[in-house]
Design brief:
- By secondary structure, this protein is mainly α.
- It has a single domain, classed as Helix Hairpins.
- It is about 85% helix and about 0% strand.
C-alpha cells in the first residue's frame, strides 16, 4: 500500500507543477497518471466509483439546499 500512496503523492505533485507551469500537454499527461494511481488506490481499498459518485451526489444535493 505504501508504494501506491507514494505514487498518488508523486503524481499529485507533478500535476500541480504542470498546472503551475501552464503546460496543457503536461497537465493532461500528469492528470492521467494521477487518476490512474488514484483508481488503483481506491480498488486496493475496495472503494467503488459508484460509492464516490454517491458521495458527490449527496454533497451536490446538500449544496443546493444551503
Amino acid at each position: 500500500m505504501n508504494k501506491i500512496l507514494e505514487k498518488v503523492g508523486e503524481e499529485s505533485i507533478e500535476t500541480i507543477l504542470a498546472v503551475r507551469n501552464e503546460n496543457h500537454a503536461e497537465i493532461i499527461s500528469e492528470s492521467s497518471d494521477l487518476i490512474f494511481h488514484l483508481l488503483v488506490m481506491l480498488a486496493a481499498n475496495n472503494v467503488t466509483l459508484d460509492e464516490i459518485a454517491a458521495e458527490l451526489t449527496a454533497r451536490h444535493e446538500n449544496m443546493k439546499r444551503d
